[in-house]
Amino acid sequence: MNIIIGQYVPGQSVIHRMDPRSKLIAVFAFVIIVFIANSWLSYAVLAAVTCAAILLSQVQLRFIYRGLRPILFVIILTFLLNAFFTRSGHELFGYGWFQLTTGGLRQAALISIRLLMIVISTTLLTLTTTPIDITDGLESLLGPLKKIRFPVHEFALMMSISLRFIPTLMEETEKIMKAQAARGVEFSSGPLLQRIKAILPLLIPLFISAFRRAEDLAMAMEARGYRGDEGRTKLRVFHWGLRDTSLLILIFLLIPVLWLLRS
Amino acid sequence: MDIIIKNLTHVYQPNSPFERIALQDINVSIASGTFLTIIGHTGSGKSSLLQHLNGLLKPTRGEVIVGNTVLASGSKTKDLKALRQKVGMVFQYPEHQLFEETVEKDIMFGPINFGVSTDEARRRAHKAVELVHLPKTILEKSPFDLSGGQMRRVAIAGILAIEPEVLILDEPTAGLDPRGHREIMDLFVHLNKREGLTTIMVTHNMDDAALYSDEVMVMDRGHLVVKDRPEVVFQDVDRLNQLGLDIPQTMRFLQLLSAKAEKDFVTPLFGIDETADYIAERLKKEWDGV
User: Fold this and answer.
1) What is residue B156's predicted lDDT score, i.e. its pLDDT?
2) Can you provide one Gene Ontology molecular function annotated for this UniProt record (chain A) (predicted)?
């Protein structure tokens, strides 16, 4: 079993080196801004921005495709639904209630491109930022929520701990599966009911070991003086640079530009 | 049950960037009733080899023959179940596989999976508990209320209740205290000598390898280096050191003694008493001026 958690592809590009906070804000803003666009020209502008981001990140296209693959089906489905259920413009093709119109085709293309850009921009974020940086960035961005007693630090810690332990749990699962297979359990063959029953001897030991691990981890953290957020400094400090500010200005400049290009 | 391994090669994730050769062209035959110990550095392919013996891994090339079952790259899972009944496997930290409400049910789990009746499985559970030297009262307890050493015995009993003809042990004594260690090893020797179970053990403990096994097999980076009687294998101290392997404590003592006395005392001896006798005899000879 070899599962890569997070899709991070190491690199030294401008985008890799950016502050995760600026990337998070930019992607979040971009996903909303995409919805302003409604004309071909506005879409062209957005596509240009997306392509520029891909080029700057120096990430190979196959990694982006890998991130897209799971969503591709949804995009195709949306395209088909829009193409056949929107009726405006001339009729291109008709068979009973089944119609393909120019308006429908246009609508389908625009919506699919919109979805595609949203997925590409978020994929680009996870491709160029380590999961740990994303959690730390989120923690920092959500910082103000501490004022209303929202446990931001604990939330971020929970996220990074779960990310950290996914591979460990996968390994553990594989080990226990093998041990139970040696005791005659069949996980991948036999009648369905039997296979469902086979989950129990896997889940119980897995839960027990997860709880034990959690307890050990809590103890180890406490033994090293962990007392939560208060007065805690970071090993890796974020540096907000000129490029981060420029990225945000660029993204927010898109709003008036797209508004003007609306049809 | 004889085990024959022919030209066994195993590649993890073939044809991918993560491709890794775990075993390369291994040829071994293990006679029925042998106590074989496999030693080797981490990543030498020991565990991969073990997992071929009961079909948890299938050969990429070559074949594994256990009794009259032949395991090759295309073998079907149906035949594997019969193989797994004949070859019992005790994993590292086997206590992590316990899950039932009572010890009895947990030990009965394996036999029932292999199609044994409930009554027969219960009879085997009682017998297995006795074999691993646990009191019968333990059968009604929850496996999670036991001490670490007891849990390990229960897990081993769960394998023994399947009544395999071959027992595979992956570092069975890891994490046990010296007493628990000795008791568990005595149990395996007993099973091997009295019940005639062919035993194949992986260990990092050279004393166990030297003291208990009929044969020792040394592995390095997926290759079989040597397979012979312990006296022969441990004779070649330099090669073992090269492979990052240690020698038994008795031999280490003889090494230190040789360095101090500026005479060669090193010889493959593994028991503490016989080593002491040997030293006494050698010293006596020296003093007698022979």
Assistant:
1) 94
2) transmembrane transporter activity
- Give chain B's domains with CATH numbers: 3-247 (3.40.50.300), 248-290 (no CATH)
Q: What is the torsional sign of CA B182, B187, B192, B194? A: positive
CA–CA dist B235, B231 (Å, integer): 6
Task: Please count the residue pairs, one from chain A and one from chain B, whose beta carbons lie less than 8 angstroms apart.
Answer: 57
pLDDT of A143 strictly over 80: yes
Instruction: Give the ipTM.
Output: 0.84
- For the question of whether the overall pTM of this predicted structure is more than 0.90, the answer is no
Phi and psi torsions of A183, nearest 5°:
-95, 15
CB contacts of A201 in chain B (<8 Å) are 97, 99, 109
Q: Which positions in chain B have a beta carbon within 8 angstroms of at least one beta carbon in chain A?
A: 13, 18, 51, 54, 56, 77-78, 81, 84-85, 88-89, 91, 94, 96-99, 109-110, 113-114, 144, 158-159, 162
Please name the member of A2, A182, A205 whose beta carbon is closest to the beta carbon of B99. A205
Token representation of residue B191? 């099973």
User: Which residue(s) pair with B29 in the sheet?
Assistant: B4
- Residue that is written with structure tokens 């001026």 in the block: B289
Q: Using CA atoms, how far apart are residues B251 and B237, in angstroms rounded to an integer?
A: 9
CB-based burial of residue B62 (10 Å sphere; 0-12 exposed, 13-18 middle, 19+ buried)? Answer: buried
Question: Strand pairing of B87-90 and B69-71?
Answer: unpaired
Q: Contacts of residue B78 in chain A, CB cutoff 8 Å?
A: 189
Tokens (6 digits) for B179: 């007493």
* pLDDT tens figures, A80-97: 888 877 777 777 777 766
Strands of the sheet containing B69-71, edge to edge, are B20-30, B3-12, B61-66, B69-71
